[in-house]
Amino acid sequence: MEHFKKIQSKIDQYSHHVEEALSLPEITIKYGLNSYRYGSSSFLSDLFDPIDITNETVFYDLGSGYGNIILYGAIKYPEAQFKGIEILEERNKVCISLIEKEGIANATAISGDILIADISDGNVFYLYNPLFDFQYEALLNKLYQISLKKNITVIAESRCIFFDEARWLEQYDLKDIDVVRKIKYYRSTKY
Fold first, then answer.
1. The domain spanning residue 64 has which CATH number?
2. Does the global pTM surpass 0.90?
3. What does the pLDDT look like over 16-54, one tens digit per residue?
4. Domains in the chain: how many in total?
């Protein structure tokens, strides 16, 4: 994954400058009331292990930031499609630029709201705490509607409680990162 290490170095360089320039009041006026926290899994090699990734996989990172997850996944699994949705154009532009510069054909960066964007082609959904608590119900409803048509996998890092309580999801794997953080893997049970 030497190729990704170079990309990660560029993400770190660009993200520092972008994050310094962001103003919470300005982005709230521009994009509305959303969670603008930035964080990304630092357990990339472990994150994908419990997932069966094939040429039919359409993997979404919901709240993709600078694209760490989708870029790593796209390089490691060239047969699958990786899509990231990030509400802040400033972050998303960095990912788009890296996809173009590196010629990564199976990655797409979308600027938009995960609660509004069409994600119905997806079958794997990753989230690193992209929403406020009151917004998870809408996301769960959206994912549930997708699960009525096909089996889906949901990977939650951090705010797992909302997925634990969803009766249509069953947990099938757990990675304890530390006392507070966990990565939980769920699959739909209704399809």
1. 3.40.50.150
2. no
3. 777 777 666 676 666 666 655 555 556 787 889 899 999
4. 1
